[in-house]
Automatic annotation (TrEMBL):
Organism whose genome encodes this protein: Sphaerisporangium dianthi
All copies of domain RNA polymerase sigma-70 region, residue ranges: 32-95
Organism classification: Bacteria, Bacillati, Actinomycetota, Actinomycetes, Streptosporangiales
UniProt name for this protein: RNA polymerase sigma factor
Family note: Belongs to the sigma-70 factor family. ECF subfamily.
Segments for region (Disordered): 1-23
Residue ranges that the Swiss-Prot or TrEMBL entry lists as coiled coil: none
Keywords: Sigma factor, Transcription, Transcription regulation
Length: 440
């Protein structure tokens, strides 16, 4: 078999392992190397479907070959060599692909590309190409995150479907549609040039942050947080940080996610109910993660104008540095939201600024800003807006209005834990409202 000869030297230096011990090892190697393997194969052959199929065949070959011949010193490179050979064999057998293979070879020769790696070569890291392909603006917005989780995070199609709370068949259709678009639109597997990068990088960062946001605060379902999804986003951001170490906004995004994720253990109570920032036990925060995030904030804000994620990370750092809610540097947070509104104005940023103003200047000032935002279409169906308004009305003693706002927030809330919290707050407000109060 070609793949057996490919790693003869590697295998000679490796002790043989019992067959039953090889399966978990192959799974671990494939999990770690899958993104790089797919990126290298897709970049060479220009076909994600082919890349996935031959990568799976290479894993099957490893499960057959490694128990008897030993695990190679560079298992990832062995998988790449085997997958490349299987891809070439398949293309040669398939007349429909014969012309494509010839074109690929001509393009490789013109570019001066080296021949396919042997088993002793380190697995090249071409994941950056795949990041930009999966987040290409030509793809539908709902498909970008799904494709990123499938190809770069290594989740199966059913796992991606669970991440987006859709049926597996629906997600399979989305992924097929995205791959077809890449193929038909001839979306290149390449890193944007230096002049293209400022335009293309925000799309990649937005995809990763959207995945994280769904994990940090689920839009629907039985749980408030989906930690496995947030951690996948963190893993992707760490990969991107290694691949683009000089990009300050990549540092800002990773720092922001670390500073938020550091509070994960304190954000829910024993029954999964949400615990708001002012009630959290800050001793349960991950302080090592906070320190890492703070370091990245410095990187993100040094050497040029502040970026979207760097400013948000600075706000998160101020929250994490404070010993309690009252000691938080609210004037500085408001100032950072002012900067954020100049960089990326949006009703949601304005809502968050209003909440910070309420902490700095009082509930009346914050509520006045919320009332100015009440006509924004994007906030009408946004649960945090109704909940923030209810909380401020409650602080001002306007209990009947607060009850109405809590009812509205309850109708909009997407997760059961959040609905339970709002029901509890609504019951407390009703219990405190005089029977003859207007609106009761």
């Amino acid at each position: 078999m070609p793949e057996q000869a490919a790693d003869a030297d590697d295998a000679a230096d490796s002790p043989q392992r019992p067959a039953e011990s090889v399966g978990p090892l192959v799974e671990a190697v494939f999990r770690e190397e899958r993104g790089r393997l797919l990126a290298s194969l897709a970049g060479r052959f220009g076909d994600l479907d082919l890349a996935e199929e031959v990568a799976s065949e290479a894993v099957e070959a490893a499960l057959t070959h490694w128990p008897s011949h030993g695990v190679p010193a560079r298992p990832g490179a062995w998988l790449l060599t085997t997958a490349r050979r299987k891809a070439v064999d398949r293309l040669r057998r398939d007349q429909a692909y014969a012309a494509r293979l010839a074109i690929l070879q001509v393009e490789a020769d013109r570019a001066g590309s080296a021949p396919p790696a042997d088993a002793g070569e380190d697995l090249p890291d071409e994941r950056l190409q795949l990041f930009f392909t999966c987040a290409h603006p030509a793809l539908a917005a709902e498909d970008r995150g799904a494709l990123t989780l499938r190809c770069l995070a290594g989740l199966s199609t059913p796992q991606v479907a669970r991440a987006y709370l859709v049926p597996s068949a629906t997600m399979a259709q989305r992924i097929v549609r995205a791959k077809k678009k890449i193929r038909q639109a001839r979306i290149p597997f390449r890193v944007p040039t230096a002049d293209e990068l400022p335009e293309r990088l925000p799309g990649v960062l937005q995809v990763i942050y959207s995945i994280f946001t769904e994990g940090y605060a689920a839009s629907s379902g039985p749980d408030l947080q989906r930690l496995e999804l947030a951690e996948e986003a963190l893993r992707l951001a760490r990969i991107l940080r290694r691949l683009l170490p000089g990009q300050r906004e990549v540092a800002g995004l990773l720092g922001l996610m670390l500073l938020i994720h550091a509070r994960r253990q304190a954000r829910t109570g024993p029954g999964g109910e949400p615990v708001l920032l002012d009630e959290q036990d800050r001793r349960r925060w991950d302080h090592a993660m906070i320190e890492e995030g703070r370091h990245l904030v410095v990187v993100a804000l040094t050497g040029g104008p502040p970026g979207l994620y760097g400013v948000q990370a600075a706000i998160a750092a101020l929250h994490d540095e404070a010993p309690d809610l009252a000691s938080t540097d609210w004037p500085q947070i408001v100032a950072l939201y002012d900067v954020l509104l100049t960089i990326a104005p949006s009703p949601v940023v304005a809502l968050n600024r209003a909440a910070a103003v309420a902490m700095r200047d009082g509930a009346e000032a914050g509520l006045a800003l919320l009332e100015e935002l009440a006509g924004e279409p994007r906030l009408r169906g946004y649960p945090p807006f109704a909940a923030a308004r209810a909380d401020l009305l409650c602080r001002l003693g306007r209990l009947p209005e607060a009850a109405a706002a809590y009812r509205q927030a309850l109708e909009l809330a997407g997760t059961e834990p959040e609905r339970a919290r709002l029901r509890r707050r609504l019951a407390q407000v009703r219990a405190s409202t005089p029977d003859d109060a207007p609106g009761t």
